[in-house]
Design goal:
By secondary structure, the chain is α+β, with helices and mostly antiparallel strands. The protein has 16 helices and 21 strands. The protein binds flavin-adenine dinucleotide. Flavin-adenine dinucleotide binds next to helix 9, strand 15 and strand 19.
Length: 531
């Protein structure tokens, strides 16, 4: 491959060599870095401290190796370019025409954004990546929360904010308040690997996630915010006869339920993803794959901000740094509101959308859930100079990889087997995951791990979401999103809002909490994206 022929920089070391014998460095990173994921508070508050990697100085002074050994500026900053002013209060002119501007600059070609961003192109004096990170204007309400709302949503992640957005825009219910303990998107909605797909394992899930995938395709037009949605296609590889059969079945079932998926052979896989070692390092030969044509990615925090902006503009309230510390109950046990440091807030309905913290919040309402919280880790490498077009998941090696708009390789695997609320990354995970990834993609061995992070996931026993009312009156849930909830944000938000407003939402009917009492669990292990 071309990158093998490139003049090698003497100071650039392969990942595999760097990993060997550096457990102590990784531990140091983890200790100093409670959260390394790149999420930002829209108001600038709560920004995690900048992490200094042990090799940061080397990287800064060196500037990285460009194509054919030509030094180039770090991909996230263009030398000499002025940092544009952050969008301040008042009308956000940049935001209003964001989608159109992005399309004009980059054209409609898939991957166009990524290519431009990687070379650090400047547009009108603004570095492309600065544009990407320019915050949306969020018209925050003034003052403290009101004493009473129709609906209080605990958790300002994608699900909480999307529910508020659809309640306001589709059903005219604007007396809604979203409360977040930290800043919006500080949970898993700002930490995920951004994969959107609908190739699930049971028909009910395929229908639901297909709706969400289609809503994502329209979300930029709907909200007017650029969420960097890119359709890439997802290749789900099989490395044995058994898993090849599984993928063939998945392709047939998905196609029958409306999710465009085909079973493809090794030649077609190699055409779609030339970087893949189709022999799997001699040990995991690729027999075939299911190819999900509409698999996509979108920038996670921009999705959160888009929904927050829409909800705020339509009159909903969103309060950051306002933890809910308890629920108020009526004499009949009904949940009547929430307890916060800013005082009690009464509500007709309280919805919990708190990600991995759901067991605690549900416990306040005496609701016991079939959910356990597990940590899920992910990491990115430094930028890869070539285009890596699809999303690739491996059924037998159990990992997945895609390329970010900055050109970095984004790699994830399964959640930690033991339940925990730990939000640190582990060297053993990085090592095991890198080994699998390098087996399939030898070029990854020449890259370095740049950042790693962890989120805590609300994993249900049947790997499907839990949406709607509970056995306690006035208390609703949007949970069970585990490691797969980002892709569901539009459909879940709109369906939950519809259920609350009209009493009926066919797409999420199978996903009520009562299914466990009815012995109608929606078992779907393929939710996790690796099986
Ligand atoms: C590493 C990783 C990779 C992932 N990759 C993917 C992927 O590729 N595709 C996909 O579809 N999904 C993925 N997921 C899963 C996805 O990110 C989550 O399922 C989804 O973001 C859940 O959204 P949420 O709004 O329910 O929860 P969160 O985004 O976690 O939001 C919950 C919010 O509740 C707040 N909160 C908690 N307790 C309280 C309280 N007491 N009071 C007030 N606020 C509170 C938190 O501060 C937080 O902001 C991934 C997850 C992780 C961790």
């Amino acid at each position: 491959m071309a990158h093998h022929r490139r003049a090698r920089c003497p100071r650039r070391r392969p990942l595999a060599r760097w990993l060997r014998g550096r457990a102590h460095l990784a531990r140091r990173c983890v200790r100093h870095l409670p959260h390394c994921g790149r999420v930002h508070a829209p108001d600038g508050a709560g920004r995690p401290p900048r992490h200094r990697h042990p090799r940061a100085r080397l990287r800064r002074s060196h500037g990285g190796c460009g194509p054919r050994g030509v030094a180039r500026p770090a991909p996230h900053r263009v030398a000499g370019a002025q940092r544009p002013a952050r969008a301040g209060p008042g009308p956000d002119r940049r935001c209003a025409s964001e989608v159109g501007a992005a399309r004009r600059w980059f054209g409609a070609v898939p991957g166009g954004v990524r290519r431009e961003a990687r070379v650090g192109r400047t547009v009108g004096g603004t570095a492309v990546n600065e544009f990407v990170e320019t915050l949306l204007d969020l018209p925050w309400q003034v003052g403290d929360p009101k004493p009473v709302y129709d609906v209080v949503i605990i958790g300002g992640g994608g699900h909480g904010l999307a529910t508020a957005y659809y309640l306001a825009t589709r059903h005219g219910i604007t007396n809604v308040c979203v409360l977040d303990a930290n800043f919006i998107g500080s949970g898993n909605s700002g930490r995920n690997t951004t994969i959107i797909r609908s190739n699930y394992g049971i028909p009910e899930s395929v229908h639901f996630y297909q709706r969400s995938l289609e809503m994502y395709q329209q979300l930029e037009d709907e909200t007017g915010c650029w969420i960097m949605h890119t359709t890439k296609g997802q290749i789900w590889t099989a490395h044995s006869v058994m898993t090849a059969r599984t993928e063939q079945t998945r392709a047939l079932m998905n196609a029958a339920c409306g999710a465009k998926t085909d079973y493809i052979g090794p030649d077609e896989i190699k055409r779609l993803c030339p970087q893949m070692d189709i022999t799997g390092g001699g040990r995991y030969p690729v027999h075939g794959a299911s190819y999900h044509h509409e698999g996509a990615t979108a920038r996670h925090d921009r999705v959160v901000w888009a929904y927050a902006q829409g909800a705020l503009r339509h009159g909903a309230h969103v309060f950051q740094h306002t933890p809910v510390t308890g629920l108020t109950r009526g004499a009949d046990g009904r949940v009547t509101g929430v307890v916060t440091p800013k005082g009690n807030i009464a509500a007709g309905t309280v919805i919990s959308a708190v990600g991995g913290h759901v067991s605690t919040v549900a416990g306040w309402a005496d609701v016991r859930l079939p959910i356990r919280t597990h940590a899920l880790q992910a990491f990115v490498t430094n930028a890869y100079a070539q285009e890596f077009a699809p999303i690739v998941s491996s059924n037998d090696l159990v990992f997945y990889v895609s390329q970010t708009p900055r050109g970095q390789m984004l790699i994830g695997a399964e959640y930690d087997r033991f339940a925990s609320y730990r939000q640190t990354t582990t060297f053993s995970y990085l090592q095991a995951c890198s080994k699998k990834a390098v087996t399939m993609f030898p070029f990854l061995g020449k890259l370095r791990i740049l950042r790693s992070w962890t989120g805590i996931c609300d994993v249900s026993t049947d790997f499907s979401p839990i949406l709607g009312p509970t056995t306690t009156d006035g208390f609703w849930l949007s949970t069970g999103w585990g490691t797969w909830g980002f892709k569901a944000i539009p459909a879940a938000g709109s369906q939950l809002a519809q259920l609350l407003a009209t009493g009926s939402a066919p797409l999420i009917e199978p996903f009520g909490l009562d299914r466990f009492a009815r012995e109608a669990a929606m078992a779907d292990p393929s939710s996790a994206g690796t099986r």
